[in-house]
Amino acid sequence: MNEDTKPPKPGFLPIETNWFDRLFISVVIWVALSLFWFRFIEPLGLSIWICCAISAVLAVYIIRKG
Amino acid sequence: MHSKTLGWALLAPTLILLFFFGVVPFIYVLFVSFHQWNPFAVNPDMIFNWAENYRRVVFDAQFLASFGVTIAFVFFAVVSELIIGYALAQAFMRDFPGKAFFRTIHTLPLIMAPIIVGSIWKLMTTPSIGILPNILDDWLGYNLNIGQSALQAFTVTVIMDIWHWTPLVTLSLIAALVSLPPDPFEQAQIDGANKRQIFWHITLPMIRPAIIATVFIRLMDALRTVDEVLMLTGGGPGSATRYLGVHIFKEVFPRTNYGYGSAISVVVLYLTIVACWLLYVSLIAPRNTRKG
């Protein structure tokens, strides 16, 4: 079946999305989380790489299940 | 030629232009934002410093203050422009003597360069020679000095933005109102609906796409205001009108801090995209019918 004719994938997000929308949402969340981490979590001693790992897992989850 | 191929072929010039004038500069700014770079320093080389610039952005008190005043500026300016623009659009839908003349006069600020608008408003608000402080002092005994009062400076920049950009809103809404079919309005009048009901239940839903498009344009524009504010107040007094655009300008040009300035620009772009996206999601995006 062609991508254009596929019905929109129902997921946990409240809006209809395609894979690019979900990628976009993941990037937006990644950046927000990173800036938040820089400001509040990193001063406590936790590396930004932990945030990157969390964001990557979140991104995969959102792209696949969103 | 296959219709899809023809479609791509016709789109190609635009896509190529967009790539070179939109995507490439953005990637370059993103690249610079991960470097420490002062091309006019003793060592003009770009030094990769991971996300140090972004780490600095979230602790930059001046940036956070700029962000706060920018949000306030955007809110007051865009909401006022929408309300005044709609009222003017409705007024221009009616016939009155000199309508064409007033419509032309009303559109004039739109064709003025922002730097000229800033200069004019600076002349109008300079305490010794400006018309506004003199009129306010003579008529109301009110002392207007935007060089000293933070609130006055902020208010004048908002009013200047409203003066400059309301015509854009008016023109968009006139175009939307003109294109409305008369049938629903006649039907509503026959059914006995009053003006307020007609506005809320017929006019507003029908011009919603035009309102949303206009808000998008104004939101993006207001978030990156630089020139007119820089000309009028220079970001002052203190940091009262140091909006994000002004902050970036001051960081990049006088201080030649290109890497850090690029990082702030990327953050501002990010915030603009998020604001527009949230607006899109809340107002336009189709709902997911089945939640997983």
Ordered list of secondary-structure elements with their pairings:
The complex is a heterodimer of chains A (66) and B (292).
Chain A: H1 19-41, H2 48-65
Helix pairs in contact in A: 1-2
Chain B: H1 3-33, E1 35-36, E2 47-48, H2 52-57, H3 61-93, H4 99-107, H5 114-125, H6 131-140, H7 150-178, H8 183-190, H9 195-223, H10 227-232, H11 244-252, H12 258-283
Antiparallel strand pairs in B: 1-2
Keywords (chain A): Membrane, Transmembrane, Transmembrane helix
Pfam families (chain A): DUF2160
InterPro entries (chain A): DUF2160_TM
Describe this structure in words.
The complex is a heterodimer of chains A (66) and B (292). Chain A contains two helices and no strands. Chain A has 66 residues and is mainly α. Chain A starts with 18 loop residues before the first helix and ends with a helix. With 292 residues, chain B is mostly helical. Helices cover 71% and strands 1% of the residues of chain B. Chain B is built from twelve helices and two strands; from the N terminus they run αββααααααααααα. In chain B, strands 1-2 form a two-stranded antiparallel sheet. The longest helix of chain B has 33 residues, at 61-93. Chain B is globular, with a radius of gyration of 23 Å. At the A-B interface, α1 of A face α2 and α12 of B. Chain A: It holds the Pfam family DUF2160. Chain A: The chain crosses the membrane at residues 20-38, 44-63. Chain A: Keywords: Membrane, Transmembrane, Transmembrane helix.
